[in-house]
């Protein structure tokens, strides 16, 4: 499944390091698109261009304070992911809570960085997340899986499954989707892959693949969806050398 991806990744590695300004412009492009799409999947109504101007410090009329904060917070969470990658820190429960803290800062401070204490249901999904009293145990199982089985997996499989398992537990009251997509990219970036953007126009396929993973323990559709986005991001980076 990953032969083409691995070939493109090897080709990109031979061309590194990228020039300073190319790298900066690629980062800015992906930061805006990642922030826009991740927020739009969760219902944020800011357009791609509006997201860009909010990141530049401009307020968009007719949009809520929450929508503005979601953009700023997501940018800060991406910066945190980049810092983890630079420092080569192993994934921890504390990091996951920190990501959520950044996502919900100023939006829902009472639940920023703490596990939910209420049952939640995901609209449109067959899967029901575990009861609140099971969350700690489920996250411990996830971390154990990550530290043992996941280490043997291809980075794309590992990142996709980390995202899927985490969002299936749905450990927080809010911000689970954004946090899971940050965790997916964290795994990819640790292995030298560029971050990917799960596009809002693919939301239905994305949700269906996740629901299949949660209800049937069949992760193939979701891994393939992620692999397609990985290839797109590699193509974007390689296009800088044409």
TrEMBL record:
InterPro entries for the chain: Fido, Fido-like_dom_sf, Fido_containing
Cleaved signal peptide residues: none
The Fido domain, residue ranges: 91-228
Protein name: Fic family protein
Organism from which the protein derives: Cytobacillus mangrovibacter
